[in-house]
Amino acid sequence: MTGRLASGVKAAYPSEAVRNAATLRTMRPDDLDEVLVIEQAAYGHPWSRGNFRDSLNPLFDAHCLWLEGELLGYFLAMHGVEEMHLLNITVAPSRQGQGWGHMMLDALSLMSRSQGAQWLWLEVRQSNARALQVYERYGFRQVSVRKDYYPAGRQQREHAVVMSLKL
């Protein structure tokens, strides 16, 4: 399981009124069909329904971002001792580049702090330059590289960049 931000198209940022109309709520089992549509559209190696279903328990923070009945994105994070580990953050490809990922990172940071976390951790594919840039702009710093962490095709693997953010 990994912290990810899918790459995609750029678009204009939504107005403050539109951002304020968005709702972040706990992910539920009946969200999984829509979550999987976005996950499969965003990634070459998407999470399975089982991965998401297994994350719907008290060890995880799983949330969906909605706007007028449309699922914009979601994130899942795992609790640790004085830390939170971002496992997956995804914005619908048609909504990428509009600031929704940043909004979800803000929400996750606030939730993490309120639960006593001092650090936020994630892994991201070494080849995902856009996500690396987003995370670095947000304040994450590269800590290390995990060799051969991600599947990358027929019997190939890709390194993961491990990043952390002091909350």
Gist of the model:
The protein has 167 residues and is α+β, with helices and mostly antiparallel strands.
Question: Topology, please?
Answer:
Elements lengths: L15 H6 L1 E4 L5 H11 L6 H6 L5 E8 L2 E11 L2 E9 L8 H15 L4 E7 L3 H10 L2 E11 L5 E10 L1
Parallel strand pairs: 4-5
Antiparallel strand pairs: 1-2, 2-3, 3-4, 5-7, 6-7
Task: Name a few traits of the molecule.
167 residues; Aminopeptidase; seven-stranded mixed sheet; alpha+beta; 5 helices
Structural notes for this entry:
The chain has 5 helices and 7 strands, in the order αβααβββαβαββ. It has 167 residues and is α+β, with helices and mostly antiparallel strands. It has a 7-stranded mixed sheet with strand order 1-2-3-4-5-7-6, sandwiched between helices. It starts with 15 loop residues before the first helix and ends with a strand. Residues 1-12 have low confidence and may be disordered.
Number of strands: 7
**Portion of residues in helices?**
25-40%
Radius of gyration: 15 Å
Strand content: 35-45%
Computed structural class: alpha+beta
CATH architecture: 3-Layer(aba) Sandwich
Low-confidence stretches: 1-12
